Amino acid sequence: MIKHVRTRFAPSPTGFLHVGGLRTALYAFLLARKHGGEFLLRIEDTDRTRLVPGAVENIISALQWAGIEFDEGPGKNGPCGPYVQSERLPLYQKHAQELLAAGHAYYCFCSAERLEMVRAAKIANKLPPAYDQHCRNLAPDVVTQQLQGSTTHVIRMKVPHEGELTFNDLIRGDVTFGYKTVDDQVLLKSDGFPTYHLAVVVDDHYMNISHVIRGEEWLSSTPKHILLYQYFGWQAPLFAHLPLMLNPDRSKLSKRQGDVAVEDYRQKGFLPEALVNFIAFLGWNPGGTREFFTLDELIQEFTLERVGSAGAVFNLEKLNWMNQQYIARMDSDELLKHVKPMFAEKGWTNFSDQYFKEALVLLKERVILMPDFLTTGPFFFEAPTSFDEQLKAKNWKAESAEYIRDVARIFQALPAFDAASVEQAIRAYAIEKGVNVSALIHPLRLALSGAAQGPSLWQMIAVFGKAEVAKRIELACKTLG
Ligand code: GLU
Q1: How confident is the model over 41-64, as pLDDT tens digits?
Q2: Whose CA is nearest to atom 5 of ligand 1?
Q3: Which residue lies with its CA nearest to atom 3 of ligand 1?
Q4: Architecture of the domain defined by 90-188
C-alpha cells in the first residue's frame, strides 16, 4: 500500500544533465506534485572515477531552468539528508555488515587480475561474464586470516543459485529474471564506498521513496535491488522503467547524432517551457490530440499508466516547431523581456518599448529560437546602408527611385499612418501610374529593409513611422540610384 508519494531523481554527477535525465526528473516531479507528495534530488557520487567537476551545479541549474523544483536535496534541508551519497558512507557500511552477519553477503578477496581472467574465460566460453563465486564459500577462519592480512576485499551479495524473481513494473507489467542471469554483485568496494546497487536501495528505503522512476537501462539491476529489500526485510518501492530515447534512425540517443545535454538546448535559446512540453511527450501522451501543456497542466494530466514501453524518438524538427509555437504564442511584453538583454548587447537600445513590441510581434512568426530575432529583424533597429548586388538587380529598376520618392511624398500627406492606409495609398498610386503594385513593393522593401523578404510591408512601414520611412527612402535612392 502506498501511503504517500515520494519520488526522486538520482543522477550520478558524471556530466551535464542529459535530456533523458531531464525526462526522468520531469516524470518523477510530475507524479509527486500530482499526488501532493515530495520530489527529491539525490546525488549518486559513489563512483569516484567518473566524477566530473561542475556536474552537480549543472544538474541543479538545469532543473531550475526547466522549472523542476525539488523539495529535498543538496542545499535544501530535509528530514532524510544528506542527499549526497558520499556523505552517507557509514550508513552503507553498516548495512553491508548487516548483510554479512545475516549470511546474505560475503567478503571477496579476488584480485583484479583474477577477476579479469575469470571474465575473459567466461566470454571465451560464450557465458555471461559474471563472477565465479570463488570466495562465496570460504571457510570462516580463512576469511578471518585474509581480513587480517594485507589483501584488499570487497563485499558481494549472495544471489540464489536456483529459481527466478518476478516483479511488477508499472510500465511493463510483470518482469521475470532467472537468478542464473544475476551476478553476485559487489555491494561495498575496497575503498569503503558502496556501489550504486547497495546505496540506491539503502537510500530509497531511508528516504521513504514510494516510486522509483528511472531509465530502462536499470531494469536488469532491479532483481538485485529487490533481493536486497528482501534481505533487509524492507518493503520495496514501486518501479517504473521509462522507455529509451532514440535517434531518428531508432538507435539509442547519442551525442554523435545531435545535442544530448539540456545545456546545449538552453544555450541555443530554446525556451524551457517548450523543451519540457516536448520532453514530456517522449514516452507519455495524454490521449487525444492536444499538444500544448504548461507544467501545471502536465502535473494535472500526468499518469504513469499513460507512459509506454516503446522507445521514444527525439525529433529535433518537432522540438523546433514547438519552440516556434511557444514564441508565436507569447505576448509582446513577455517577448520583450526575453530579447531586451540580447538587443542591448547589439546596441539596440534607443527605442521605446512600444516600438520594440510592435517590431517583435511582426517578427515572431518567423522565429524558431529567441536569438533568431537578432538575424530576422535587424532592419527594425538599423537602416540598411548597403545593398546586396543580386537583390538590387532583381528588385531595383531604373524608375524605382522616382516611384518610391513619390510614395514618400504621398505618405507625408496621409492623415493616418497605419498599415491599412499605407496599403491603400500605395495601391492607389500604382493604379494612377498604371503599374503593377509589385513595381512598388519590391523596391520599397529593399529600400526600407535591405532584404527581399520579411514581415508584411504595410505593417512594417507603419511601425517604422513616417519620418524614418522618409529618411530611409531618401538614403536608399541615393545609394541605389
Ligand atoms: N545513479 C543512477 C543514474 O545515474 C540512478 C538510477 C536510479 O534512478 O536508480 O541514473
Answers
A1: 999 999 999 999 999 999 999 999
A2: 10
A3: 11
A4: Alpha-Beta Complex (3.90)
